[in-house]
Fold these 4 entries.
Entry 1:
Amino acid sequence: MRLLCVSDIHGHADALAAVLATAERRGYTQLLVAGDLCFPGPKPLETWRRLTQAKAVCVQGVSDRALATLDIDKVRPRSEHERARLDRLAETRTELGELILARLARLAPTYRLPLEDGGELVLVHGSPADPMEPISHDMTDEEVLSLLGDDPADVVICGGSHVPFDRLVGGVRIINVGSVGEAPCSIRSEAADRVRIAGRAPGELSRSGALSTSYGAGHADATFIELRAGELQVEQLVVPLGRAA
């Protein structure tokens, strides 16, 4: 079983297409998506269609819940930015239509997958204790433990913070897969300016648990996960994007 794990597409269908094209050349058996699928990017319907065609397993993120349930008439925007976001929310709802909105409303907050070694993987947007509260790379072990809850599974696949990392806390492997559509901009070294960063064990990561080289603009994040010879192999990808993405 070789899993392609992504999160936070936010309606950027071209970025998703670039990730899927890269992954298809490498091969994978299942696509897992840790929420925030269609809003606020420019192509929410195309994003949904691509995920459907790929038979993706998706869990509900913050923006998915907002699209499906938020009563816009009861929200009083406090700034022009908030007004623009509400207008975009209404436009996205119209583009998606009632059927897809109903499906977004029914997405589960978590998805559990048994692993071949007898362990278990949980897919969640934020954290096992609170699917809407993300685990970020700069949290202390104590902060992370408080978000793992009583039954976190052996491997937690999550998004929400838009920054990928691979970290072991309290015996739980936490893999944040970053963002397809809204990966943060930062300075990166020439050595890291490659499409792929090979999988690394948690001990090879920086003290915070994030990959020690930061990522730059114009890219999407994705992660391959595979159980090989009883060992979990994790490979976090940086996929360059063209202007269209």
Note: The chain is about 25% helix and 20% strand.
Entry 2:
Amino acid sequence: MSINLETTIEAYLKAKNLSQGTRDEYRATLRKWKQWRTDTPLVEIDRKTVRDFLGWVYENAIEEEGTNPGRTANKARENLRAVMSWAWEQDLIESLPRFPRPRPQRVVAGRHYLTKAELNALYFATFQMKRPRGWDAPFTIGRYWRCALVLFFNYGMDTGTFWGTLNCHKLLLWRHVSWDRVSLDGQRKERCRWGWLFYKRVKTGKTFHRPMNRIVYAHLKSIRPEEPDPNAPVVLGGGTRPNIRFQQLCELVGIGPKTDVETGEQKPWVLKDLRKTCATYYDAHVPESSIEILGHSMGGVTYRHYAHRDPLAFKAIMTIPQPAAFKALARGIDGRCPCCRRAF
């Protein structure tokens, strides 16, 4: 007996601890699917089927005089992609179909993440950062900030992990960086050719052992002293107010303040927004992977204590698409654009 989409969605909702509002959204997507087409085996859903369905959702939203048809189609796309990804992890389908790109939509909420173009611009701008008074570190301040941007994007670390301004902050030290293939805790089955990182979440104190991908490895190598002190912090250059330096970096590249749609209030970008940026791109790459990457709280005793989520985090970290500027150092062209080879 073939499995259809309705059965898969119900099994997905039973396996996940989702809010009632989120469950209603998935069931609304299922109603649209059943209205568009009768029962279809899950294994027969390919890219053309998904594209035709999302096109129908978009056109139907226009006919019903919807205020934001692009967002309606994109919401159905996100729900369908999450379910298909889960079905692929459960070996219900042999391969995950390619999904079409999201449709343009009207922004209905304030944007709290940075685009990859803005991340590239911030990376380039670190080459123009001025040497602080009394700076005696072995490398320029811009090199440390480039490494920090890469770590923020790949792991969504807290600001206090880099530049602890309070006693409760657990700094990332050189003894927390392992260049071996085996994880520092020795309990991970995965092997990583680039090494591993160990750090703690500032708010919850949860510990993480995360693999390094090629981009992270190259940037940590670029700031590694010849004989690093195991108890010395990895990233320098934050000062007493790292958010101020980050806002100066944003002003240098012309990134305007973010706007709250409800109040219309303009607020400056802060380093915590890089954590939100990390969550945004991980969920776009591997649905729901940001829960494990960022260490968000998860409901359900079974999910918290028995579900093995490390392979999902490992796969997401090792395969997430990087901003173009981050690849320059890994390709051996530090200070030049990877595409045109012009100096930053």
Note: The CA atoms of residues 34 and 198 lie 47 Å apart.
Entry 3:
Amino acid sequence: MAAVVPVWARALLLVDRAVLSTVRLAALVRTELLLAGLSTSEREAVNAAVFSAEDTYAPGGPAFAQGLFAWERETLATAPFPAAGRVLLGGAGGGRELAGLCALGYDVVAFEPAPALSDALATVAAQHPGARALRGAYADLVLAVGGGGGPLAALVGERYDGVVLGWASLSHLTDAGERAELFAALRALAPTAPVLLSYLGPDDDGRANGRVERLRAPLRRGLARVLRSAPAAEGAGFVPGAGFYQRFTAAEIEALATAAGYDVALHEREPYPHALLRPRA
């Protein structure tokens, strides 16, 4: 005779599902309110504060301790990325990639906007001859390349043999215009340098696909009407420990590269979404 689930167990499971749905709903509402209510610059300020509070990316943290990931090492060893030379490293965090690139023999010029991580990055750079660290964001790079000076003005006029956009840092640019400006700036600053980038793919934020998730689109449209703002882009989101982010499809990454004058030399979704771009002649 088949066993029967006791009434108390069924009730407990129902309560558990109700609590989980409530938590998911609260997270969805929080995310959509933040996306609708904050400007691009305010989102970037939140991200800087979030990452400054995270010690996992600084020396001594578990992410830093991993060094370069296998997919990063393999891509760095893939043409057209140069085997030696000076590398510009943006969104460099606490120095994980800087230390790894220096160990491979590259000279590295790196920058990072989050204050605590930027301080850690400077400490790591000081341990490696040929490495230099600055505090600044991708928007500061665009400003510098455009002749506006700013904290990254010293990067202009130097030669770069390769460019690395730090681990998923591209996904923290939630404005399409800013992404286009960044790639145009890279093309102008380092016209012959290949670019290694990584990003959050469509399924990388762990969203549920149930009834709660179906509320996202109407809530997003409703908030845009109430606040008289443009709705957040498809794929935009927020996580307390990682700030605001933008998920991309492979096609969106390739379109961004093509529009900026790059060809896609390599593009992989596993084990982590990443691409290697070659400047078009």
Note: The chain is about 40% helix and 15% strand.
Entry 4:
Amino acid sequence: MTKEPAPGFKRHMLPEHEDLLEQAGTFRRLMESRRSVREFSDRPVPESVVRELIRTAGTAPSGANKQPWRFVAVRDPGLKSEIRIAAEEEEKLFYEKRASQTWLDDLKPFMTDAEKPFLEIAPWIIIIFKVMGPDPDQPDGVDNGKVYYVNESVGIACGLFLAAAHHAGLATLTHTPSPMKFLTSILRRPANERPFLVIPLGYPAEDCMVPDIERKQIDRIMTIDRG
């Protein structure tokens, strides 16, 4: 006997694949080629593509389905320049005062520094905010403002965005200037939003280079409990 869905529910159907291992391996090989890029081309990316990527990010699971994220897509050159100036001020303090020597030593293989030209060169800068508490733009009674597992939820949404961008053939970078309060004022975001992550988005520069790194082998990141 077929189970009828309860009110507010609908039947869930997954895509069927003849070979689960092959399907999983295909996606794994695709994602193995994803890399963080710091040298971008200024080649344009259509707004329609950015919208589709953010729609994908918005499919992420979230605590009580509150979807506590806001993706702010920036392509205005003036705003990007303003963001770069403010980010580099924080990065300069990080490299000169805030970071421990151990942290700086760990960063040496990546040859990073306080200069962040990609914030102006990449055609899009996606700034993700986590939504905390009531939305001042919503009328009273529309939303009780309660949010749950915010960092976990927003982190999953960001991961889906990165995967979707790579699947579409675009490069990304997870950039975290700290603190990021300057983004709230530059982008005129409401008081209930907190900056979470900055993701430059676009095509890699023609001569883009990335560090030759290796991922941990499966037996170093996975343990099977056989009971």
Note: The mean pLDDT is 94.
